[in-house]
Amino acid sequence: VQLQASGGGSVQAGDSLRVSCLASGRTLRMYAVGWFRQAPGKEREFVAAISWGGATNYADFVKGRFTISRDSAKNTAYLQMNSLKPEDTAVYYCAVDTQRAYASSRRELYDYWGQGTQVTVSS
User: For residue 116, how many other CB atoms are within 10 A of its CB?
Assistant: First the structure.
């Protein structure tokens, strides 16, 4: 499966942004989809995931601010980000876990990755 992340940009603190992950090659709704992010000099970290059944899992630092969703008709997953903070600045990556149905936070379980999209939040 090929993943194309898009929608990143530069915003002010408190703004909202939605990043998208378009899948091709396979039907996205059959798999768990995760969003991860990596800031300069830091490890790639889990942000959110959605299982094939629609169950969601969020990192504590985004609960109540970010929402992960999926549009099966468009074969696209989304990450809606509200109340953005400067510490949310990072490259955001989408990934697919083709082996498990649940929404894992473990990046090593995801076997396909998109190229990433830059999100920059200024204060």
Answer: 19
Return the number of other C-beta atoms located less than 10 Å from residue 32's C-beta: 24
User: How far, in Å, CA of 105 to CA of 95, rounded?
Assistant: 11
Side chain identity at 81, as an amino acid letter?
M
What SS3 string covers 58-98? ECHHHCCCEEEEEEHHHCEEEEEECCCCHHHCEEEEEEEEC
pLDDT at position 13, please? Answer: 98
d(CA 33, CA 96): 5
- CA 121, 93, 9, 21 dihedral sign is negative
Task: Say whether pLDDT at 28 is over 90.
Answer: no
Nearest C-alpha neighbor of 36 from the set 82, 99, 96: 96
Over residues 59-87, the mean pLDDT reads 96
- Measured between alpha carbons, how far is 6 from 83 in angstroms, rounded to an integer? 19
